[in-house]
Amino acid sequence: MSIIRMHKRDVPYVQIRKYCFEDRRLSWKARGLLGYLLSLPSDWKIYVADLVKRAPDGKTSVYSALNELQGAGYVKPVQIRDESGRFVAGGYDVFEEPEETFFAQNKDPEPENPSPDLPYSENQPLINKQVNKNTKTKKTQQQAVVAENPSLDNSSDDEDVQPPVAAADVKILSDRLLGEILTPAQVSAVNDTVSQLLAEQPELGDAKCLHDEITKTLLNPKSFSLAGNDFRRKLNTIRKTIRSGKWRPVTPDITKRVKRYEDALEETELELRFEQQERLHWQHKLTLIDRAKFPENYEVMSRQLLKAEARIEKLTEKLDALRQSQDNH
Predict the structure, then answer these.
(1) DSSP state of 318
(2) Which of 4, 24, 54, 265 has its CA 20 to 30 A from that of 115?
(3) pLDDT (tens digit, 9 = 90+) per residue, 112-132?
(4) Domain locations in the chain?
């Protein structure tokens, strides 16, 4: 079972650099989880299963946030070793600022004679704890407000801030994202889509009914949830679904079934991506170890790889079964 370990300054109160909370790549869910993990004592260890138990939003949400943090470089897979240097488990380290993402490169630079002690020797820290003190603080949210209300700008001339976000940029951003209702520009895009689809497939019927169903689907966060709140991406997905003949309007009698299917599909896909990253991690470590010198460690890592591959096979079968069951309805 994977262990998560924190590396941060050891202080008697919660003190976290603002960088991660202002990282636009992260969702609010990922920022919140990272904030919680970094609030724990330095070198604290917690199991992923514990995180799932402590949160009301379930396993899918936790895996989604961890995958997001790993992709951004805040979470990194590592080897957990005992005092003698023996490998005991695989885990993940958490950082206040992003490390180089482990899976961003196809292959790490390797010496001519690699050994397991090069990346994780007893004389080297497992993690680079150095914090970049030159990171500039971004004030994106404040700037967006100032753009619409210049009178609120109280910043001094010598502060290191970004230029204010133009009001037009804020408007464009709102048209790209889905909220509680559609913006006028989004309504216009839906109208264009309806007209185009009816010209291609007149059997779709009434324009108003089709418009209403597409709008309901766009505003339903559980429908086509992998598109997130990206308006264009979700609309394009709906358009492709209608053209493929798989469109099912959101009606009360099928809403619950569709929701269960989409939730199960998303959870399984997230778990599969997580296990695929585990497999890549162990495959990479096995290329660095000298089997003749470290046979015991090699066998432990090989077993971890086999476990990851078995879980991947099981999750792939589960995904296929889910999709097949949906096609049969």
Answers:
(1) H
(2) 4
(3) 333 333 232 323 222 332 333
(4) 3-120, 136-176, 177-250
